[in-house]
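[recover] target loaded
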């Protein structure tokens, strides 16, 4: 099954006790993955499309397309914005195909989360993290206590870096090109 368009609206979030469950609920343009068969790959929302879907020709249906889209969603959940968003459609396509991921230093992110997002947003689909390897990664398999320790340590280090940066000379930031700003996810 290729989901193709995992927008936030297509998710249902429910808090049960202390765990957050996210369910994908909108399969409007999903299709069955026929490995090795080329298909029109431009269905879905542009900002979630993988680079191979933007080549202008039929693309092989593969789970790597969804891994990319889940990586975009993961990034958006962490940073509150999309990783590749341009001034217009052609600029967005160029960024998806060529731009490196930018990490907002003002947002705490664990090295493991950064590694997973980086591997999910690999431009080359053959090098991109596959679903089975994702499920085997320590970030996914670790126990809740280990995860909480890692998050607490990361947050403590982040807070310390932010406090230290307050004592330094403020950095001059140029005004943004996109006056409207990036949309949130």
């Amino acid at each position: 099954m290729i989901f193709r368009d995992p927008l936030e609206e297509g998710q249902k979030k429910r808090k049960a006790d202390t765990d957050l469950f996210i369910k994908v609920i909108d399969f409007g343009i999903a299709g069955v993955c026929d490995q090795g068969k080329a298909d029109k790959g431009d269905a879905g929302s542009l900002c979630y499309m993988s680079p191979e879907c933007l080549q202008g020709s039929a693309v092989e249906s593969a789970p790597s397309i969804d891994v990319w889209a889940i990586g975009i969603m993961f990034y958006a959940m962490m940073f509150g914005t999309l990783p590749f968003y341009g001034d217009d459609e052609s600029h967005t396509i160029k960024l998806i195909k060529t731009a490196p991921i930018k990490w907002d230093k003002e947002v705490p992110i664990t090295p493991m989360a950064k590694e997973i997002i980086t591997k999910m947003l690999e431009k080359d689909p053959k090098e991109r993290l596959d679903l089975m390897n994702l499920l085997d990664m320590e970030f996914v398999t670790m126990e809740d206590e280990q995860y909480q320790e890692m998050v607490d340590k990361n947050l403590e280090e982040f807070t310390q870096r932010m406090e230290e940066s307050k004592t330094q000379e403020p950095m001059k930031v140029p005004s943004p090109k996109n006056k409207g700003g990036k949309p949130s996810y």
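[recover] notes: Helices lie at 63-79, 89-98, 111-120, 131-136, 138-141, 144-166.
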